[in-house]
Structures are given as C-alpha cells and as structure tokens.
Design a protein that fits this description.
The protein has nine helices and eight strands. By secondary structure, the protein is of the alpha+beta class.
Length: 216
C-alpha cells in the first residue's frame, strides 16, 4: 500500500496523473445515480476533424453518444472508428479538457419505457463494428456519431432529435473546413446530401440539460 501511495505521489508530481481521475471520481459520487439509459452525452473531442465540425456547424460540440448500462457499468454507445461501446470514464477523458454535457428527453418518463430502452440498445448494437462515415452520407453502410443517435431515437420512438440539413447549409468558408472537404470530396461537395450535426441535436427543443462537467 505504501508503494502505491509513493507511486501516485510521483506521478502527480510529474504531471502524468491529471485531474481526470479526481474529476471522474467526484462525478461518479455526485451524479451517476442521476443518469438514465438513453441520455445523450456531448463533447468536443480531440479528434482531427473536431475543429472542422465546430466551424462548419457553428457549434461547440462535435461528438455525441448515448448512455447505456452494461454489466452494471455506465458505457457510451458511439460511432467512432468503428462503432463501439466505450466506458464512460474513457469517453470523458477523450474530450477537450474533459468537458461534457448530458441531455435527456424532456418527456422521457412517458416515451422511454424499459421496452423502448431495450429496443434502442438492440438497434444501436446492430451497428457495432461498422466503419465511421467520413463522407457523412445518409445510409446505414457506414455511420457517423450524430447519425447513429438520431437514427436510434427515430427508429424506436419516431422522434427527430434535431433538424436534418443538406450539406450546402453548413459553413465551408474556413480553411480548416475547406481542407478536410477537399481531402474527402475533391472539387465536388455533395451539397444536397442530408446530414444531422451534433450541434443540431444539442439544440433540439425535445432535450433538456441534466448534467454538465461544471456541476461537479
């Protein structure tokens, strides 16, 4: 036990152990009892395209997942590469400065029955292992983060969490966005391809904020 204590002190001094552990532990103590399956969790990730998504959608948030419970542990069903289920603490650590916001359906008590939650999880898991869609196409062959969550809710509840938009309505004026668009589409962007952004979901009037990092 003494050796473990000394190692932790050394790591703290060297900066290897950050506020992540303390933040997540305090989050668990204060807030995990408030979590519900089907809650949406938003962050700005440290992925390369995160800044481009923020600029193109005029939103602080570039990534979203859905909270589920597996073996009595909180996990996040998400579309990264590939679609997977990630432990909540690891998901939080991936975010920019570990900031996140959790939102919930306003009428969740009447809509998200145990059966509906099971249907959501089953449908969401049918995408596990699928590649992340870098082209943001509205098909199920590959899938991106907000598309996955939007389709889960729409398929199982009939609700539309956020308004679909054609790509031409996004802002391609910034050089960072232009660079990524050129890499992926060449000279012709599929302007009429419909898409759902994390920002549009975040701003959905059907959702309410229940927890943010600043709460703990």
């Amino acid at each position: 036990m003494r050796k473990v204590f000394i190692i932790v002190l050394a790591l703290l001094a060297s900066g290897v152990v950050t506020s992540t552990f303390t933040n997540f532990e305090s989050f668990k103590k204060k807030n995990t009892l408030e979590l519900k399956e089907g809650d949406l969790i938003f962050q700005s990730s440290n992925a390369g395209q995160s800044r481009a998504i923020q600029l193109a959608t005029h939103s602080k948030y570039s990534h979203v997942g859905m909270l589920i419970k597996e073996n009595n542990e909180w996990m996040v069903l998400e579309a990264i590469q590939p679609v997977c289920i990630s432990p909540l603490n690891q998901w939080i650590q991936r975010g920019d400065r570990e900031h996140f916001v959790i939102k919930r359906l306003k009428n969740h008590q009447t809509v998200l029955s145990p059966k509906t939650i099971n249907d959501m999880k089953s449908f969401g898991k049918s995408f596990l292992g699928k590649n992340y869609d870098i082209y943001f196409e509205w098909s199920d062959d590959q899938i991106y983060c907000s598309e996955l969550i939007w389709k889960i809710y729409n398929k199982t509840t009939g609700l539309e969490l956020g308004e679909l938009q054609p790509l031409k309505e996004f802002d391609f004026s910034h050089p960072i966005v232009q660079s990524i668009a050129a890499q992926r589409y060449g000279v012709t962007i599929p302007e009429n391809e419909m898409a759902i952004s994390p920002g549009a979901m975040f701003n959905s009037e059907l959702l309410q904020t229940v927890i943010s990092k600043n709460d703990f």
